[in-house]
Amino acid sequence: NTQTNIQQIITINENNNKKNDMLLIQGSRRQWGILERVPTDNNISTKIFRLFMKDDGVFPNNERHPLLIFQSSAWGKKSQREGEDAIVKGNKWTSPWAWEVFSYHHYHSTAWELLLCVQGGATLLLGGEKGVTTEVSRGDLILIPPGFVHKQLNCYDGFTLLGAYPTTGCSGKE
Question: Taking the domain 2-164, which CATH number applies?
Answer without folding.
Answer: 2.60.120.10
